[in-house]
Write a structure and sequence with these properties.
mainly alpha; single chain; 95% helix; 97 residues
């Protein structure tokens, strides 16, 4: 066998190895894409459930606060004034530093 024939055989073997590697990589990429799509779908579904639950809790809290303010408007006003004063004092003391 001549040197040229050996080089040609080696080149053909290398080309076949590259094609096999390319097929393997493509298969791996496809599996990875499929897996990521599944993970994203699960994340979307879970986020919908959490968002619905949070929305329900927010509505419940809003109703509770509204009822308490309607029952005792002066107490609610005093509490809001106290919270606002506290936040103002905290912000003023932090801006001095």
């Amino acid at each position: 066998m001549t040197v040229e024939a050996e080089v040609a055989d080696t080149a053909k073997a290398a080309e076949k190895s590259l094609k096999d590697a390319e097929k393997s990589i493509r298969g791996l990429v496809e599996r990875l894409e499929h897996g990521l799509q599944e993970v994203l779908e699960v994340a979307r579904e879970r986020s919908k459930v959490y968002a619905e639950g949070a929305g329900e809790q927010l509505e419940t809290a809003q109703k509770y606060v509204t009822e308490r303010v309607q029952e005792k408007p002066l107490t609610a006003t005093a509490a809001a004034l106290g919270v606002g004063l506290l936040i103002g004092v905290l912000l003023a003391s932090s801006s001095r530093r």
